[in-house]
Amino acid sequence: MNKKKHIATNLITETARRLLKEKLDHFALYNGTVYTPWESFYGGVVVQKGKIKQLFEGEPPPELVKDGYLLFDCHDNRIVPGFVDIHVHGAKGLDFTLASEEELISAMLYHGTTGGTTAMAPTLVSAPLVHLNQAAERINRVSKSLNPGTPQVLGIHLEGPFLNPWYKGAHIEEYLKEPEPGLINDLIASIGDNLKIVTLSPELPHAMEAISRLRRQKVIAALGHSGATVEEVQEAVACGLSHAVHTYSAMRRFHHRSPGALGAVLTNDALSAEIIADGVHTHPAAVDLFFRAKPGDKTVLATDALAVCGLPDSECYLGNKKIISREGKAFLENGNLAGSLLTMNRALAGAIEMSALSMEAVLPAATINPARVIGVDKCKGSLEQGKDADIVLLDDHYDTLLTICRGIPLTFDVS
Q1: Predicted confidence (pLDDT) per residue in 299-328, tens digit
Q2: Choosing from 85, 278, 304, 395, which is the catalytic residue?
Q3: 388 has catalytic annotation
Q4: CA angle at residue 224 from 258 to 101, to 5 degrees?
Q5: Which of 1, 53, 92, 178 is the most exposed place for a label (fewest CB within 10 A)?
Q6: DSSP E strand boundaries for 82-178
Q7: Residue extents of the structural domains in the chain
């Protein structure tokens, strides 16, 4: 980092700490490029009582100083909506399926301060149902306890246990189950309204009934770890399937005479779909194809980040399966890839680089699109008047300089 940039970063941090110390609830970010995310302009954002009051082009309106607003100089950096991650397993050695309440918060803070994530759906892996219920209870308690100034829990994403064993990836086969009506009803009853996404394989017995049941309960049914055919996916969409996790990974491959689950995900405009843009799970050409194939409002960047995210080369656990991190990759003891080491800012950078698209074209996939998938787009995902003041400052290298959650800077030390 050059000297000028270092000074600017320090000034940004000092101003954020002043906001916290003086408990200021009205301020204006200025001298930055604002991404709404669909359009961009030089200007700023006015924040009042945790909400976005207005956007402005050019210099801040003179009346702001008169009205007592603190002017927050962004030093010509990017002002973007807070990132929404609907598929994330943990960080800093902490896995959401196993973590204590204190550890849950610590992992969330890492994704907030480092990655710019202001809202997320903590994601649980396949495990005994009693363990899933216990993890869900801990997440529910944390969700109720969090104040503005921390990333917000949007609900729970169950990635399994209703997955095809042939496409299990890093999931433990002995915990996988068929989505029988009784099991689905038990999970809905035990987890309650905080259950937001269930990833399952639509080709499994009882899956169509399960998808219909989830839809009636307003829970998102997502395709994942699947060997489904195009026809089976089409039937599932008719039953209520609406999303797909980590496109390409752990799903039936495309063949020109049998397009499989992958062909269905890429060509069915009814499905929103995730991509892990880390250059490990997906080749640049595959990322490019993804953004060419999917409508702009159906693309979703997700980290699928594991507990090893944020650690140097190390070993951690996904559920109770060992994950090894080496040279930017996370893999099982048998060498198969597991989840990622991504944070959302790096996912955004990777997607832009590999697709050769503009910031405005890709940024919705990290903000408003996932917010829309999980049903919070009325208050999150874009810089618009009346929405939550979830804002991130990014530099030219997509490094996170500051994360603001519901109008309060997140400046915790998570090193």
Answers
A1: 999 999 998 899 888 777 766 678 888 877
A2: 304
A3: no
A4: 170
A5: 1
A6: 83-88, 90-91, 94-95, 117-125, 152-153, 156-159
A7: 3-81+384-410, 83-374
